[in-house]
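Subgroup meeting minutes
Present: P.N., E.W., G.H.
Scribe: E.W.

1. P.N. recapped why we're keeping a running log of single-chain structure predictions: easier to compare across weeks, and new members can see raw inputs and outputs side by side.
2. G.H. added today's entry (641 aa).
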Amino acid sequence: MDIYAVTNSKSYDGTTSSTGIPTVSGVQGSDTVSGKTQVFQSKNVLGLNGSTLVVNGHTVNDGNSGGNYTITTHTATGTISTAGLDINAVTDSKTYDGTTSSTGIPTVNGLKGADTVTGKTQAFQAKHVLGVNGSALVVNGYTVNDGNSGGNYTVTAHTATGTITKKLMTITALTNTKVYDDTISAAGTPTVTGVQVGDTVTGLSEVYDNPSVGTSKTLSVASYTVNDGNSGNNYTLTTYSNNTGVITAAQTTGTVTVSPGTAQYSDKVTLTATLSPDQIDGTAPATGVTFKIGTQIVGSATLTASGGILKASIEVALLEPTPLGTAPTGQMAPGAKTVTACFTGLNSNFTVNNTSTTLTITKEDAIATYTGSLFVATPTATGTSATVTLSATVQDITATSDDAYDSNAGDIRTATVTFFVDGAATPALNVGLVNPADTKVGTVTMNLTLALGEHDIRVVVGGYYKNCIGNDGNEVVAVEQSGPGKITGGGYLVATSSSSGILPAAPGTKNNFGFNVQNTKTGLKGSINTIVRNGGRVYQIKGNAMTSLTVNTAISSAHPNPTAVFNGKANIQDITNPLAPISIDGNATLQVTMTDRGEPGKTDSSAITLYNKAGGVWFSSNWTGTTTAEQTLGGGNLVVR
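Output recorded in log:
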C-alpha cells in the first residue's frame, strides 16, 4: 500500500501543520485507510528540509490492524511563505541632546507561536530640531527569535512622529579688568553652558557698555557662533551680562622744568610742563596747565601735542601778586621754592598727577642812598645827645644805571632796610614808595637818639633785595652841642612835576609855608607848617614836636650862604573843609632844608619832605630820584642866623 503526502502551501504560522490529506493506493477489497494526516517536515520557511511534506498519521482498517499491508509513505513538496511582521516606532519627544537616540520601545504585530522580537530600538531620523527630516522616529534595531534567524517573517518597520525641542544654552560674559584705551573691547571670553556633545561655540567675545573708566561696569556678550549643524536652531540661547567689569585710568607721566633754575627776585623764568602720552585714540588726558610757585598761581597755558607728548611753556616774572599784599604773599621771597604744574581740563579716564620741581630765588640788587641828617645839633647848648633822623632811599636796580642793571623790575616794597649804627643793627624797616605809581623807588626813615660825636652809619638792604656790589651805604653822622641858631621864613614854592609822594603837590600850585624855630637854653622851640594842594584837595602839614635844628652860618668858599636843617615830628590833615578837617597821619617825620642867600630872599631855596611813619614819603617838594632837592622860592624870604 502507498500513502502519498499531497502538495500544500501556507504562510508561516510557527507550526508544521498542513491542511493537506494524503492519498492512498493499493487498498484491497473493502479495506479503508482513515485518519490520514500530513505535516511539514519543518515549521520554518526554507528550513533545514526545505518545505517537504510528510505523512504523519493514518489508520489501516483491514481487520488485521494493518498487518495485511506493507505501507510505503511518499513525501510531497510544499511551500511555507514568510509571515508579515510589523515593527512600529512609537511616538517620543525629547530636548535636543546632540544625538538621535530615543527612549521609546517599538511595538510588534504579527508574531507567530512562541516567537519573540527582542532588542527593539528606535531613533530619531535626524538629531536636529526641525531638521531636514523633521523629527521622524525610525526603528533602528530588533532581533526576531523564530529559530530561523528571522527568515520566517517579512518585517516591515513603520515610522512614528516625534518631537525634539530646543536645548537651553546660556552664554555669560566674564568679569574683566583693563586699562583705559578708549574702546569697549574686553579680553574676557564668555562662558557657555548647555552645549551638547559634538557641538561647539566659537567666536566668543564680550564688550564693555562704554569705554569710560569705572567699576561695576556692564560687560555684554558681543559675538558667538553656534556650531551644531543646524545654524544654531537646536538651542534656545540666552546671553547674560556681567556687572563686575573694571576699567582703570590710563597712567600718564608729567614733568615740569624751570629755566634758569636759579634766578633773582623779579627776573623772568620759563616754566615748561609736559604730559605723556598726548592722547589715546584721539582723547587727550588734559587740555591745559596752571603753574604755581609755592602757592601763588603765576600763569596758565594750553597744552599742545608735539612728538607724542603734550607741552606748554610760559615766561613769568618772579613777582608777588598785585596789588602788593594780595594773597598769597611771600611766595617770591628768596629761597628754595616748589614749582608745581597743575594740569587742568582733565579727562577722568586718565590718572594725571601734578608734578613739581625746585626753583631757587635769590635776592634782587638794589641801590641804597643815605638821605638822613649828616650833622645834628643837640636841642640845648649843654645837651649830650640829639635825635637824629636816619633816612634812606632804596632803588630797584632797574631804576639806576648801575652795572648790575637788568630790565626786570621788582617792587621795592618787598625790601627792608636796617641801619647799622656804629656796628649795631636797628630794627628792620619796611620800605614805602615815594610815588605810588612807581614801585621801583622807596624810602625809609627813623629817629634815633645818638650821643655826641661821630657815628658810622651803614644802610643794609634786606627782604627780597640786597645791596648791589659796591653799594655799601656807609656814611658818618656828627652830633654836636648846639649853639645859637634860628630860622624864620614864609612864602611859597611853585610845585613842579618833580613834586612826589603819596600826596604830591599838583604842578603849578602854591606850596605855602611858614616857620619860626630857634635853639634856646631850654631846648628847641617854634612852629612850622606848610600847605599842599592837589586834585581839588588841600592838605596841611604841621610840626608838632621839634627834634633838631642844625644851623651853619659859617661862610666859606664851600658854603657861601647860611644853611639849616630842621627835623621834627608832624601830622598831616585834609583841610579842604576847614570846619571838618580829616586826619591822615600823625607822628610822621618832617625834614626841611634851606639856604639863605640874603635879602630880599628871592633866591632863597628850600626842600620839604614828610616821611610816612610806615615807610615811604607823604610829600616831597622836589624829588630827584633819591632825595628832595632845594627849590628856589616862588615868593617869600628865609632867614638863617
